[in-house]
Amino acid sequence: MRWYFVLILALLSTGVFAQDAPITEAAAAVPDPAIKAVNDELATLRSETNWLWTCIAAFLVFFMQAGFAYVEAGFTRAKNVVNILMKNFIDFCFGSIFFWLIGFSIMFGPQLFPGFGIGIPGLADSLIVKEGTPDKWGFAFLIFQMVFAATAATIVSGAMAERTKFVSYIIFSALITAFIYPMFGSLAWAGLWGLGKGFLEQQGFIDFAGSTVVHSVGGWAGLAGALILGPRIGKYQDGKLFPILGHNMSMAALGVFILWFGWFGFNPGSTTSVSGGNFAVIAVTTNMSAAAGALAAMIITWIMFKKPDIGLSLNGALAGLVAITSPCANVSISSAVIIGLVAGILVVLSVLFFDRIHIDDPVGAVSVHGVCGAWGTLAAGLFAQEAYGGVNGLFFGGELSVVLVQLTGIGIAFVWSFGASSIIFLGLKYTVGLRVSEDEEITGLDILEHGNEAYPISK
C-alpha cells in the first residue's frame, strides 16, 4: 500500500487539494504506476458498489413475496390462508430453480433467432461462469433477475385463489419461470446481458422495470387461469354478484406496505448502478405514482359506493406502482402523478368490469397487474421526456411511432402470455386436474390440501 503515500505526497506537493489547482497538472506529477493503481482501485470500487446496490435491490424484491402472500391471504377467506401462503412460498422456490435451470439462459443467452431473441436453453452457469472463473457481476445480475421471475409467477396465485389444486399451481409456476416469462423477456431485455438485443429492444420499446415484462405477463397468465377455472362457488348466482369478502384487511394492508417498500428495489434497483443518481429520480416517481393511485381509487369508490373502500384503495396503490414500473426512468414527477391517478381509476373500473362479465379474480390481480401494467407501458410512450430517459413521448413532441412500439409490446405480451398459459392450464385440467372438488372448496383448501389451518381453534 506504499503507493498511497507516494500519491498523497505528490498531490500535496502539487497543490491538488487547493481549490484552483489544475488536477491534470497534479496528476502529471504523480508517477504513472501510482495513477494506474488508483484508477484500478476506483474502477473496482465502482463495480463493487454497483454489485452491492443490485444485490440489495434484489433482497428488497425478494421481500415482496411476503407482501404478495399477505395481500392475497388478507383478500381471501380464512379457510384458504395456508394454501395461499404455501403457494407464495413454494412458487419462489420453484421459480428460483427453474429460472436457474432454463429461464435465465433463454432470456439472456446466445440467441436461437439472432436479431429477434430467445436464448438457447441451459444452466445459468454457462453465462455467469466463464472458463471456470465466476463472473461476480453475473451472480448479482442473476439473483436480481431471479426475484423478478418469481414475481411474475406469484401474481398468478391471486387470480386463481381458493379453488386451484396445489400440485397444478406449482407445475405452472415452474413452467412460467422456465419458459413463458423469459421468452417474452428476451424480446424486451436480452440486451441487458450484452449478447444481442431482442426484437422489441431494437424497436425502442420502453419498459424500464417491467410493467409489461413482469406484471402484465403475470396478469394475463392469471386471466387465463381464472377463465379456465371458472368462478368460486356462490360468487355469481342467477346473474347476480354476491361479494366474497376477504377475512383480514389488516393483513392485506400490511402486505401492500411491504410491496410498496419492496418496489424501491424493483424500480430504482433496475438501474443496477448508483452512478448518475438516476435511482433517486426513479424512487420519487415510483412513490408519487403509488400515492396518486391510492388516492384516486379511494375517491372514485367514495363517489360510487358512498364510502371509501379499503380493498380497492389498497389496490389503487398497487395499480400506481405497476403502472409507473415501465416509465419510471423516463418521466417527470408531474407525469408520474398523472399516470398513478389514471391507474387508480382504471383499476376500480377494471375490477368492476371483470365482475360484471363473471370472471372471478379474488384479489384483483388481473386488473392491477395485467390492465394497469398495459396502461403503464402505454404511458411510457405518451409521457416520456428526453431530459429523463433520452426520448420524448407523444405528449412531449415525440413521434407516433414511439406509442406504436409500446402498443406492439403490449399486444405481443398479451397474445403470448394468455395463449401459452391457456394451453398449459387446459393441459393440466385434463390430466392432473386444475380445480379442487366442490366439497374441498366448500370445506376450504387448508385442511384437505395441507392438513393444517391458519387459525386452529383451541380445545
Distance between the termini: 70 Å
Topology-level CATH name:
Ammonium transporter fold
Largest sheet: 2 strands, antiparallel
How many β strands by DSSP? Answer: 6
CATH-assigned homologous superfamily:
Ammonium transporter AmtB like domains
Content of β-strand:
under 5%
CATH architecture field: Orthogonal Bundle
Task: Count the DSSP helices.
Answer: 18
Poorly predicted ranges: 1-23
Strand order in space, largest sheet: 1-2
Shape: globular
Secondary-structure class: mainly alpha
| Cα gyration radius (Å) | 24 Å
The overall pLDDT average reads 91
Q: What's the structural domain tally?
A: 1
SSE order in H/E notation?
HHHHEEHEEHHHHEEHHHHHHHHH
Helix content: 55-70%
Please give the CATH class.
Mainly Alpha
Question: What this model shows, in words?
Answer:
The strands form three sheets. Strands 1-2 form a two-stranded antiparallel ribbon. Helix 12 crosses helix 13. The chain has 18 helices and six strands. By secondary structure, it is mainly α. The protein has a single domain, classed as Orthogonal Bundle (Ammonium transporter fold), CATH 1.10.3430.10. The longest helix has 44 residues.
Quick rundown:
With 459 residues, the chain is mainly alpha-helical. The chain has helices at residues 2-14, 23-29, 32-75, 81-108, 125-128, 136-159, 166-189, 199-203, 211-229, 249-266, 278-305, 310-325, 333-356, 365-383, 386-389, 400-429, 438-443, 445-450, and strands at 111-113, 117-119, 129-130, 133-134, 236-237, 240-241. It has one domain (50-443): Ammonium transporter fold (Orthogonal Bundle), CATH 1.10.3430.10.
